[in-house]
Amino acid sequence: MAVHSLINVQANPKIGEFGPGDSVKVNYRVREGERERIQAFQGVVIKRRGEGPGANFTVRRVTQNIGVERTFPLYSPRIESVDVTRRGKVRRARLYYLRGRFGKAARIKERGRLKT
């Protein structure tokens, strides 16, 4: 018989609203030995997955003609902040088709001006 323990997990308050197609800058805390620093990863959100503590999102960027994707846990305390730089106008939840495109073909239209 399995006993399920309830763990109260709080959402990270530093993460605002964003979705697939949005360009974001994720400031992530990285440990290097004894030191800790903040590393920025900037790109387009190609998917959001799940609800609650298991939720995560994947950000894709192209650097020197090489596509790099990184998945971040949404509830992670290691995420310092997620800043939305552009809101993208997309019609689907998973943007895997961007993997096969580069340059101008990989552009996403802007959904509307960002309120600052």
Please specify the SSE layout and strand pairing:
Blueprint: E1 23-32, E2 35-49, E3 56-63, E4 66-73, E5 79-86
Antiparallel strand pairs: 1-2, 1-5, 2-3, 3-4
Characterization of this structure:
The chain starts with 22 loop residues before the first strand and ends in a 30-residue tail after the last strand. The radius of gyration is 16 Å and the shape is globular. The chain has no helices and 5 strands. It has strands at 23-32, 35-49, 56-63, 66-73, 79-86. A hairpin with a 2-residue loop joins strand 1 and strand 2. A 5-stranded antiparallel beta sheet has the order 4-3-2-1-5, with no helix packed on it. The mean pLDDT is 88. With 116 residues, the chain is mostly beta strands. Helices cover 0% and strands 42% of the residues.
**How many strand units?**
5
> What is the rounded distance between the termini?
52 Å
Please give the radius of gyration in angstroms: 16 Å
Shape: globular
Strand content: 35-45%
Strand order of the largest sheet: 4-3-2-1-5
Biggest sheet layout: 5 strands, antiparallel
- What is the structural class? mainly beta
Estimated helix fraction: under 10%
* Number of alpha- plus pi-helical segments: 0
Mean pLDDT, all residues: 88
Order of helices and strands: EEEEE
Could you name the ranges where pLDDT drops below 50 across 5 or more consecutive residues?
none
